Amino acid sequence: MSKPTDLIQGTLGLLILKILALEPTHGWAVAQRISQMSGDVLQVGQSALYPALHKLEQHGWIESEWKASEANRRAKYYSITRTGRKALADEAANWERLAGAVTAIVRTA
Amino acid sequence: MLRPRLLLRSVLHRTQVDEELDEELQYHFDSLVDQGIERGLTRQEAHSAARRAMGPVTQNREKCREVRGVNFLDDLWRDLRYAGRSMRRSPGFAALAILIMALGIGANTAVFSVVNAVLLRPLAYRDPARIIALGTREIAQGPADFQQVSIPNFQDWKSQNSSFEAMAVYGSREAPVVAHGAAAYARATEVSAEFLRVFAVAPFLGRPFAGDELKQGSDPAALIGYAYWRDHLGADAGAVSQTLRVYGRSYRIVGVLPRGFGFPDKTDIWVTALMSADDQKYRTAQNWRAVGRLKPGVALKQAQAEMDAIAGRLAAQFPESNAGRTVAVVPIMDRLVGNVRLTLYLLLGAVGLVLLIACANTAMLLLGKAMARTREITVRGALGAGRGRIVRQLITESLLLSVIAGAAGLLIASGGARVFIALAPQDLPRLDEIGIDRWVLVFTLGTSVVTSLVFGLLPALHASKLDLNEALKQSGTRSTTSGGVTRMRGLLAVTEFALTVVLLSGAGLLIKSFVALQNVEPGFRPENVLVMRATVPVRPQAPEANRYFREILPKIAHVPGVLASGATMAPPGHVESSGAYFVDRMPAQFDVRSAPEAVLSVVAAGTFPALGIPVKSGRDFNEGDTDGRPRVAVVNETLDQRAFGKQDPIGRKIVCTYDNFEPMTIVGVVGDVRQTGPAVAPQPECYMPYLQHGFNGNALSIVVRTATRPESLEQTLRQVARETSPDVPVAFTTMDASWGENVAAPRFRTVLLGIFAALAVCLAMAGIYGVMSCAVGQRTGEIGVRMALGAGAGSVLRLVLGQGLRLAGFGLALGIVAALLGARLLASMLFQIKPGDPFVYLAVATLAGAVATGASFIPAWRATRIDPLTAIRHE
Prior knowledge:
Chain A is α+β, with helices and mostly antiparallel strands and 109 residues long. Chain A has helices spanning 11-22, 27-37, 46-59, 82-107; strands at 25-26, 62-68, 74-80. Chain A has one domain (11-107): Orthogonal Bundle (Arc Repressor Mutant, subunit A), CATH 1.10.10. Chain B is 53% helix and 15% strand. Chain B has a six-stranded mixed β-barrel with strand order 2-3-8-5-7-6. Chain B has a six-stranded mixed barrel with strand order 13-14-19-16-18-17. In chain B, strands 12-20-11-21 form a four-stranded antiparallel β-sheet.
């Protein structure tokens, strides 16, 4: 099995957008959810997560806000923007095409 | 795609943003710890596991900042500070580079501010692109022909077209105007009904002309300009409904036009046009100018096509006057600036070359500096600075330099524009609009940035290509000098020299042409002649005009210091009237347009000696040639030769199509005068005594040959004029000044191109000097060895000079080729010489050779003083 960090370039952004499209949350929860939802196949370290979050914010695809977390601490909550949703749709479609193509090649005996 | 708002926050509130990032990371860390404890680790274990999982925090924090774009700005700021420090470290270098670039940018900004004001800025009318000048065009004369229009033709154009929403005729002159009892000249323009609609202008005080005021023979009304209202009527709202006397006729002021409107020629007073019966009748009486405003959405081509069709119909209907003629439809802007466009773009091009030369010089300076900084740069490279990063830092330095130079250049430009205006010909349009506006600032900033890239990129790229290993191995303080740098500097010097040669050639051609223009024999003696223009305020044909001049001319003749005096309706350099002439008698049938044409002038007795025009045979006019006596005429030599060949003209008859067609007896032949300035060959001319011809006889220029400086008599003559009649305004000039206006345009471009070429020569000299000094510095060891082996000072001198002259020779050859190609652009500006004039290029080559020799000589001489021992040890 490949190492969890071997995420294809740009895929992390797609995952983050997907998670945030479900509900606004903070960085830690995003990482947790990625590993839960992938059945612990994908692990995102903070070294990749936070630059990716900040980059998405810089693009205007997500925005942030300080709120109290479930543990009743101040945490930075990210939520997806309208342009972010559009980007998510594009990226998801792209991904499916790419994944389909790779699968098609790999399955050829 | 960076969000400016977020970026701004990241920069301005960087501590807060950084703290927030830390807090975010801390939250992540704490959550990791909590998770560990949940899974049964001790707090201690959970802490170290979390720390392992987090990885190198500082580096990641840096990554976050990078995606936010903070580092870019940080680096820029650091680079700028560093650039400032390095400038302060070598102030001499910085000052020299800034001076060179400031001169280049300043000169360009000055010329651009003129080009901007005169050619680029739209005219200050509403929808100026729709305002069109209309003229009569003789088709055979080509597309540039543009003549005045006659009233009957104009009326047909106006009534038959559907392209224009308004069309008007106008005529403008310096007129005698009496306001508040004082007589003075003012620019008065007669206009027809739709004139204000053409310009979409309305009085801000009072009202426009009313319908009945525009009918011929009705109540005359006047509109005045803002400046006239302010300067002559005290900016008084009550000025409306006061009266002005223009040419002796009373006009009621009905309105004041807004500030800034002065079409045409800075008009002071617009009056309703008064057209003579002849004007209204003859299609050949082309005495008016015309303008129109295109309807919205009508293209120039469409309008031209329609006017061509109308002209075609008129030509069929009135072949004797209109055959072969059409309507010239030209945007008003082109009519205003058409003839200065080439000159201004030429100057802009020339000054652009100066800037390129300045760039080449600065690039050479920077290359030298980059070489001296090799070590610094390699150390930075060795410590991990990327190639892009190093280039960026060096470019930032040249950018800073350039922007400072640009600011200094703006100062130079505002002074330079003043010099420009002072040198410019009086008739250069829109001179008063020249100034530093938004576009000039944009131009300067743009020029600064672009030039910084031009002169900064080469040295920066070179520096970034350094071989770190090689460079670091070089010992101590000595800088490396690779062959690449030497070649690059040589290339720059050659380019610079070639550009200089191009400028020199252009300036040389213009100078030679101007000298030729100055050496033209004008046919009279302009020095020491005072010209006093006087206009009797009556309609041009009124006979009582003569009385004033009959009275004042004898008085002036007796003023002490006056050697000779006379009066003419058109002093040399100006033509007021020209028309067909016939020898012996007027033919019963003739075609005015194909008959031989002569310049027609009315003069007073004594004019020829006053102007220094020699009487070749026969006699001058005298006091006896008055109305009622036999009609007489004097012709010039050209007319004599064309009309009479070898026969004696004296006593023969001539008829001129002037104010009456009666035959005149030729009583004298005078020498030719260049009537329209030195550049044009003399035309046939027929002089008539003003006392026998009333037409134009109300506005004469009294010409006075003086014993001393002509200006010294001005006060006395003004006094005489006031005593003769306070209602007649007078204006003074000297024949020298008025004749000089004919060559003002060539003088202007010659002087400016000369200045630019001189600037270029200085820069090129500095450039070659720099390259050669450097070359000598590099070859110190080699020269030392040569001298130790017995080479004499002479051979060392030859060695270095040879190298310098080789560079110059390449530059010269390139430059001459480029100049020969470019000189064709100048062809229309050259008088009596061809763009390929060999003398000019020979002179340029000689001068360039001298400059190159001079610039290489000091380094060469220094090379001969090298002490072989020191030099070898030095290496």
